[in-house]
Sequence to fold (201 residues):
Amino acid sequence: MTKLSKRRLARRLVGLALAVCSTLSLGCATALKQGDRAFQAGDLERARAAYISYLSSGRAFGDGESRARYRLGLSFALPGAEDRDLDKAEQALEAVIARDPDSLWARQASYLLSLGRERDRLAAELAAQAERADWLLAEVDRLNSETEQEDSEVDDSEVQVKRLLAEIDRLKQSVAELGDLLEAREQELEQIKRIDQQTPP
Fold:
């Protein structure tokens, strides 16, 4: 093989390598754009698939990677999303913070995670108060039953029943307030989604 043909072959190989790299980069960028378009259109399932494809390509980096991870997490966290998975949402959002801690996406991810922790705390408190209310209702039933059986203890039982009913009313009000807080957090998540959908990548 002559020196000339070796040089031609080397140039062709370099050109082919550059073309392959360019095609891979284009495909990677296309997946990110497809994800952004689908996310802004509210098609969370398609957006999720595109972001996963982009992040799995091995060519995700910088702001595009952070945006894809953030929106992937958001697509798993939003109320009403099919296949809603708060664990996957948390993993994606934590990855944004770990990989790009100073970015806008990391700050938004951190805020969403704090909302999620508050939601979990409110839900646990709501469950505990509901359990307490159930116990109080059972206690009211027991005292009512005793009241019917023991006339001599009617006055004391009625006082206890009134006190328990007052506590039940307080608990109901507290449960309603907690429910309103939870609903407000869900609406806040939805508002974040709408804002993010209107924000160009």
About this structure: The domain at 12-113 is CATH 1.25.40 (Serine Threonine Protein Phosphatase 5, Tetratricopeptide repeat).
